[in-house]
Design goal:
298 residues, four-stranded antiparallel beta sheet
């Protein structure tokens, strides 16, 4: 690589992003900025430039392009001086673009009921030593019993996650690192790539009004330790000493369906003698019903 060329990698979650060339130290001959996906992310994102522009290239400040990310992807930002020995100091800003969330689902629309989401598109991506990024569906092993390998980064992707369920997760390393044990939302990569830093701990927290409708579980294998299965709204796992590498991970989320209570068969009623009603003496008796406790729905 040319020593004058500077590169930086950026990890992006699913979404739409504006990449803006904000400024440069050399105003007369600003460096050229090129944006492209790394080899493993080519099929995960699209870089959108103007119809007459060179795809992914920004020639100076006040220029911009758009990146559409279908699945978590890694972008490379490459800065090249315009002149030999020129400056490579450029200010690049990446801003997420959003159209907001619908307030409610219109009556009569098709698809899942509001808030239920779709469990079929829940995906787990992990960066595995020697393999790179590996993606599996829910309830499937990454690495694991058949092929244990060091897991260095994790990203949970759920495009149709229900609005009333929140998930966040964090990873931990044997030695403190940037972002160590910091919770991130769904669609965000937690961990490292290509630095030979194995994860030694994993945490997952679920919250929201719809929490009681789902069963969440994680199965993990840490080097030299047996497989461990944990269920609950808050999952925290690590090896016996807290320093063993994570070499297998399986996550699963199931929807709990309440079964109706069957009605007891009707039994023929025997005739009973009816006692004569007591004679009224003209008094009125008032019975106060016990007030039920109020229930708060979070």
């Amino acid at each position: 690589m040319n020593e004058q060329i500077q590169q930086k990698t950026i990890d992006l979650a699913r979404g739409l992003f504006l990449v803006r060339y904000n400024g440069a130290d050399d105003k007369m001959s600003p460096p050229v900025v090129r944006i492209y996906a790394d080899r493993a992310s080519i099929n995960n994102c699209d870089i959108i430039s103007g119809p007459d522009a060179v795809n992914g290239t920004l020639y100076g400040p006040e220029s911009a392009l758009v990146v559409s990310v279908l699945r978590p992807a890694r972008l490379i930002v490459e800065v090249t001086p315009q002149l030999a020995g020129g400056s490579t100091a450029a200010n690049i800003k990446i801003e997420p673009l959003t159209q907001g969330q619908p307030a409610s689902q219109p009556f009569g629309s098709f698809g899942p009921e509001p808030g239920l989401g779709d469990l079929n598109d829940l995906k787990l991506l992990a960066h595995v030593a020697g393999l790179g990024d590996v993606t599996v569906s829910a309830n499937s092993w990454i690495a694991g019993p058949a092929a244990p390998a060091r897991i260095e980064g994790i990203c949970l992707d759920w495009p149709s996650k229900p609005h009333d369920l929140n998930l966040q997760y964090a990873v931990k390393f044997a030695r403190p690192q940037r972002g160590d044990n910091q919770f991130v939302p769904v669609g965000t990569f937690a961990g490292t790539r290509g630095r030979a830093l194995a994860i030694t701990g994993f945490s997952l927290e679920a919250s929201g009004p719809g929490l009681d409708r789902y069963a969440i579980s994680a199965e993990t294998i840490f080097l030299g330790a047996p497989a461990l299965r944990v269920t609950g709204n808050r999952i925290v796992v690590s090896g016996p000493s807290g320093r063993e590498p994570l070499v297998g991970l399986k996550l699963n989320i199931e929807e709990l369906r309440t079964q109706p209570t069957p009605l007891a068969p009707l039994q023929p009623r025997r005739a009973e003698a009816v006692a004569p009603a007591p004679r009224s003496e003209g008094r009125v008796r008032v019975f106060r019903s016990r007030q039920g406790a109020a229930k708060t729905i979070g």
